[in-house]
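Readers of this paper often ask what the protein records in our data store actually look like. Such a record has a labelled line for the sequence and another for the backbone structure tokens. Nothing more is needed to write down the fold, since each code stands for a local backbone conformation. The record that follows is passed on verbatim for readers who wish to inspect the format.
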Amino acid sequence: MTDVTTSYDTEYEAGFGDYFALLKPRVMSLVVFTALVGLLVAPVGVHPLVGFASILFIAVGGGASGALNMWWDADIDAVMRRTAKRPVPSGRVTAGDALGLGLALSGFSVIMLGLAANWAAAALLAFTIFFYAVVYSMWLKRTTPQNIVIGGAAGAFPPMIGWVVATGSISLEAVLMFAVIFMWTPPHFWALALFMRSDYDDAGVPMLTVTHGRRTTRRHILVYTALLAPVAVGLGFTSIGGPVYLIGAILMNAWFLKGAVAIARRDETQAEADKYAVEKGFFKFSLLYLFLHFGALLVDATLRGLGVI
């Protein structure tokens, strides 16, 4: 971690909203939703109280990861327009408080998930926090353009954790839910990096756009989107798939692939002329992509429970 000099207002006292922002609530919403789907589509039922407690502690663990990331990345966040207003670089919360909160919530969430559900799920949650805070934030992010490829695993674990809460084990379905998020992460973030490259340049983060240029990044987006499509559609042929998911996955991945092809065909002159409209559109759709896929799994599970399919 490099030193960051931040000017703290001695008269400002951090409030609940400042500490809550450390937990990256928007990212946490995806963690909660995918973990919930992983739990609900599992073949083993879970008592509602156990299920609620488990999702709560998974959410807390996800928030702990966010706080640890903000503590470590304070120097990077301070020079990036997209992150400069976060609690630590803006001076609303001290780096020490962010670290303390992250460590406390990490221990609390893992222990409580083990007590509420099972220790296999708790161990997977602990590994997820470690992977995001240490493997991704402290190592990959600052050293390799593969940062977001390998690091994407951190965000892919929640549905697997939800599945393990219910079943106590990992199966093909859990692996494929993990794989969908894992393969989705690179094109999602690389699309953002195409029109936010200056941020990564300024912060010295070796994002693919910085190390290999936008032309290479565009090709990589297409390749990873093409690899993602069969994985996402293939999930529909497992025990948790169904007609809603399968039809939705085919349509969404066809649209996603169409967008990736359009990005790959563009050059910087075209992109700058329309202020990266295509890239921004692809990124916005990618935000919906996972929610729609996992929402479709939930719809099929509900229909299956009602005996409709």
Q: What stands out?
A: Confidence is low (pLDDT under 50) at residues 2-10. The radius of gyration is 20 Å. DSSP finds 16 helices and no strands in the chain.
